[in-house]
């Protein structure tokens, strides 16, 4: 007999993540809103949003999953508009509302196609039958629609603007959104991974679109001064990377990425008030900017570490994943080889030991998560090579922006990136043209009338 809910080791892990983040954000909100008259309203919407996420994770019925998915968005809408007098919050909520309704229609279409294909509304049964089913039109349609829903939920370019403007909402909302809600796109694809893997069209769609979004959003984040906006662009980039990992079939790596990103973003937003103090402390400590030769040394040392790890344990099966870990280890090592003084050797030894520990932890976690997900698909070598080239391009352009800012093409690239690639302006105009927000227009008119009085 089938049930509306299903508990698996993967879902238990995700529930643990939701419980930790939910408790932390609720506790933070209880203290942060102690002077607010509407604290009860905020906490009520926050708890309802978290509860809806729990239902999404536990659902094993297409209709229940869809209803919970819609509920998450509607509850989040109330949180974004907690301060309705802010025009940017109104704009973000309006764009998010329209995109959410569109993605929910796409999700309904995907579920209808899956039901038509397998004649069952139970997700576990659909996933089980997909492993033995041949590729068909309905299966391809469902996979493409699921890919589009995931990219919209993960704020991929060009529908990313609402995520940047949500920083107008209270800090706990940003923490909940960036550490949890946007991850639902990746969770959706992990739950329906066999469906996605059955369609090469859907996989290539994610690899190209999310890969480009990863590169552009990652570069744009380096041009931002505002801490929250910088973190928002970083989220769009990291979500794109997670989607690419899922499309490549690196499910355990995507799940590890999901957990690490969730904890990091929750901490970053809830601790964003201390970022200025950390920046000033680094300046007072005489922070030294790494030179190109320092990066070369770090890249060499990290490549040696990876070579030893691969020789002993064969940890890397994807070229793109190897490039990503290589750059991550290099970024960790480069500060220790920046200052060539008498303390460099012990500092370098400590850093290398720490890097070796992280690499060991990564290998262990990757192996354990592979057992939990229980998913395994052949690696597409062409797609893997393309993603690796994207990572190399991202790294090279980041260095160019940092070390050659006065070169002509780099200056033009910086201006383009600093404008957010001009994509959100286009999306905003199109959104307000197709479906104007009356409350937003009234709010903007009231502000225009107040400006002469203020002067």
Structure description:
With 455 residues, this protein is mainly α. It has two domains: 9-277; 288-368, no CATH class. The chain is 77% helix and 0% strand. The chain is built from 21 helices and no strands. It has helices at 9-32, 39-58, 62-80, 87-118, 123-130, 137-153, 161-165, 171-179, 184-191, 193-197, 200-221, 227-248, 251-270, 275-284, 292-313, 319-333, 344-373, 381-403, 408-418, 423-434, 438-454. Helix 6 (137-153) runs antiparallel to helix 9. The chain starts with 8 loop residues before the first helix and ends with a helix. The model is unreliable at 446-455 (pLDDT under 50).
**Uncertain regions spanning at least 5 consecutive residues:** 446-455
Rg value: 23 Å
**Overall tally of domains:** 2
Strand content: under 5%
What is the first-to-last residue Cα distance? 71 Å
Summed over residues and divided by their number, the pLDDT gives a mean of: 85
Assembly state (oligomeric): single chain
Sketch the topology as an H/E string, one letter per element.
HHHHHHHHHHHHHHHHHHHHH
- Tell me about the largest β-sheet: none
Number of helices: 21
Helix/strand structural class: mainly alpha
How many β strands by DSSP? 0
Question: Could you name the key traits of this structure?
Answer:
mainly alpha; 77% helix; globular
């Amino acid at each position: 007999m089938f049930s509306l809910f299903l508990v698996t080791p993967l879902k238990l892990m995700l529930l643990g993540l939701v419980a930790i983040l939910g408790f932390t954000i609720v506790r933070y909100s209880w203290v942060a809103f102690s002077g607010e008259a509407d604290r009860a309203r905020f906490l009520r919407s926050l708890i309802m949003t978290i509860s809806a996420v729990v239902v999404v994770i536990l659902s094993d019925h297409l209709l229940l999953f869809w209803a919970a998915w819609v509920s998450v968005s509607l509850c989040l809408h109330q949180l974004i508009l907690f301060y309705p007098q802010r025009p940017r919050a109104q704009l973000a909520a309006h764009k998010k509302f329209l995109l959410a309704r569109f993605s929910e229609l796409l999700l309904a279409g995907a579920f209808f196609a899956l039901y038509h294909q397998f004649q069952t509304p139970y997700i576990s049964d659909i996933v089980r039958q997909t492993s033995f089913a041949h590729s068909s039109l309905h299966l391809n349609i469902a996979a493409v629609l699921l890919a589009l829903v995931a990219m919209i939920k993960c704020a991929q370019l060009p529908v990313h603007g609402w995520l940047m403007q949500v920083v107008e909402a209270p800090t706990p909302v940003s923490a909940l959104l960036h550490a949890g809600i946007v991850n639902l796109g990746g969770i959706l694809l992990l739950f329906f991974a066999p469906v996605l893997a059955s369609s090469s069209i859907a996989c290539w769609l994610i690899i190209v679109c999310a890969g480009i979004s990863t590169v552009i959003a990652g570069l744009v984040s380096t041009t931002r001064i505002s801490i929250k906006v910088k973190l928002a662009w970083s989220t769009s980039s990291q979500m794109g990377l997670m989607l690419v990992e899922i499309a490549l079939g690196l499910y355990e790596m995507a799940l590890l990425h999901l957990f690490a990103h969730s904890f990091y973003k929750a901490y970053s937003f809830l601790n964003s008030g201390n970022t200025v103090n950390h920046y000033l402390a680094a300046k007072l400590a005489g922070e030294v900017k790494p030179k190109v030769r320092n990066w070369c040394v770090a890249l060499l040392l990290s490549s040696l570490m990876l070579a030893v790890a691969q020789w002993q344990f064969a940890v890397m099966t994807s070229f793109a994943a190897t490039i990503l870990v290589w750059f991550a280890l290099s970024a960790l090592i480069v500060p220790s080889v920046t200052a060539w003084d008498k303390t460099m050797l012990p500092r370098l030894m400590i850093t290398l030991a720490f890097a070796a520990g992280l690499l060991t932890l990564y290998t262990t976690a990757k192996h354990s998560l592979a057992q939990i997900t229980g998913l395994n698909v052949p690696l597409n070598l062409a797609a893997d090579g393309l993603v690796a080239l994207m990572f190399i391009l991202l790294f090279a352009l980041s260095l160019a922006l940092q070390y050659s800012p006065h070169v002509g093409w780099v200056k033009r690239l910086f201006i383009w990136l600093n404008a957010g690639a001009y994509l959100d302006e286009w999306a905003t105009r199109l959104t307000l043209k197709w479906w104007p927000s009356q409350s937003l227009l009234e709010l903007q008119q009231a502000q225009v009338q107040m400006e002469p009085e203020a002067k």
